[in-house]
Amino acid sequence: MKSEQEASASHAGPIVELSGVNKHYGDLHVLQNINLEVSKGEVVVILGPSGSGKSTLCRTINRLETIDEGSIAIDGKKLPEEGKALAKLRADVGMVFQSFNLFAHKTILENVTLGPIKVKGMKKAEADKLAMSLLERVGVANQSHKLPAQLSGGQQQRVAIARALAMRPKVMLFDEPTSALDPEMINEVLDTMVGLAHEGMTMLVVTHEMGFARKAADRVIFMADGQIVEQSSPEDFFTNPQSDRAKDFLGKLITH
Amino acid sequence: MEGYLSLWDEYGSRIMESFWANLQLTFWAALASLVLGTILAIMRISPIPSLRAFGAAYVNIIRNTPLTIILTFGVLVLFGVFQLKLTNDFDLNFFQIAIIGLSIYHAAFFCEAIRSGVNTVPLGQAEAARAIGLSFLPAAWLVILPQAFRGAIAPMGNVLIALIKNTTVAIAGSVAEISGLMKTMLEYRADVGVLIFLTVALMFVIVVLPIGALVTWLSKRLAVAR
Ligand SMILES: Nc1ncnc2c1ncn2[C@@H]1O[C@H](COP(=O)(O)OP(=O)(O)OP(=O)(O)O)[C@@H](O)[C@H]1O
Ligand SMILES: [Mg+2]
Predict the structure, then answer these.
(1) Considering just the CA atoms, what is the radius of gyration of chain B in Å?
(2) If DSSP codes are grouped into helix, strand and coil, which group holds residue B176?
(3) A95: helix, strand or coil
(4) Enclosing domain of residue B91
(5) Chain A contact for B225, CB < 8 A?
(6) Roughly what angle, to the nearest 10 degrees, separates helices B49-63 and B90-118?
(7) CA A120 to CA B156: how far, in whole Å?
């Protein structure tokens, strides 16, 4: 029974597939031969010291950053170079930024409906309904007529999650979604993310929140100096890290 | 004082007509240069290198060419050499050529004003737009430019005010506007020369001052809260 399930899962193929990805910023080799597969429904947490290339990795997956070498595929489709095809594939990849990046001149509702209406050609009434149900789900439906600046950081980030979900993405990328938040707002965002994870969303999350990694991650990837140094289950990684870099990283976290 | 009143008796209707020409030049040139300036600004922020280069070249060439030369060029070359006739009405033709010249010139300044507005929009806005699947033009039109315009109201207002005053250069394009009439009046009515100057200057001040106030008010009111 189990092997049958595995067989059907592998037949579908990974949602995200990076192979031999290299990227340089001038002399800095910021991504070094990255190979990574994320399968459907998997939640992968990326950890690593500052400057190790976590954000860059995340951003290459929807081509906000270009790569020098290698290939990236979303649900089996290679990322196109530019233009309409790229825009279309980007809609399949939801992204949540550290600084929320809600459209400052649009209401909360309009932030969520813009993509469905303008990218997917959805009717306004239908998009409004979809948006309200998503805002309900992240707990900010009662703020729908306000502008982003009128919301707290935690609320803004939950709207950003709803905005990404409105495109019905195949995978969600989170780049330190709670790092810009006041401590008392971190949990409301993490809870939303844990909820998503339990509903089966495929997620790639860069975070320093170890609690989230323990609670929701299927796999932890540890990066240092542009390389994936080790990957394992959260349990294994936290209790039994293999590399010196990972031991050092975890040691610093615990003493803080 | 009597001399001044008789000036108005003599020239009053022509003064109003000429100044009306300046206002009409302003209106049409503002409209056209705003549209052209927006297109240039889109070119300058576009991901296509050749469009960016064209936009930059346009701005740098036009901005560094004196307006008088552009307007004289319009009349001498477009009309004189190429016989460009937009209409059969002789005066109206010069008027329209002047609008084109003023628009070409001020579009470069509107472009740069809008671009300064683009710089007030954080990079994350464009990234978020791209991330939900908007390609360049919709991202620019729906997300970047609406915020850029609202951040560029003050510099765009300055361009508009400069345009109003620059309509006096249209005399170089043979348009019967106020500075041309002023020269005529100075010739025939040297007795009230200073008053003629002051009158014309005051007419511009009366138009420009409220615009300046409106711009200040709008740029505060429409500022994007972040
Ligand atoms: N646009 C850029 N130009 C040049 N260098 C860059 C650029 N973006 C990032 N870098 C460099 O690339 C390296 C990796 O950056 P990245 O932001 O991916 O790290 P990170 O792991 O996300 O770090 P942090 O935990 O601080 O967010 C850093 O040394 C950074 O200085
Ligand atoms: Mg980062």
Answers:
(1) 21
(2) coil
(3) strand
(4) 21-177
(5) yes
(6) 120
(7) 34
* Residue B63 included in any domain: yes
pLDDT the model gives residue A2 = 39
In a domain, B130, yes or no: yes
Contact between A118 and B134 using a beta-carbon 8 Å cutoff: yes
- Evaluate whether residue B141 is within a structural domain: yes
Number of domains in chain B: 1
**Tell me, what's the pLDDT at A254?**
63
Residue A88 in this model has a pLDDT that exceeds 70: yes
User: For the CA atoms of chain A, what is the radius of gyration?
Assistant: 18
What's the whole-model pTM score?
Answer: 0.90
CB A72 within 8 A of CB A173: no
Q: Which residues contact B186 (CB under 8 A, 6 or more apart)?
A: B193, B196
Confidence of residue B85 (pLDDT cuts 50, 70, 90): confident
Does residue B2 lie in a domain region? no
Per DSSP, the residues of B90-119 read HHHHHHHHHHHHHHHHHHHHHHHHHHHHHT
Q: How many CA atoms lie within 13 A of A227 on its CB side?
A: 6
Nearest CA to ligand 1 atom 27: A50
Alpha carbon of B198: minimum distance to chain A alpha carbons (Å): 44
What CATH number does residue B145 fall under? 1.10.3720.10
**How far apart are alpha carbons A223 and A213 in whole angstroms?**
15
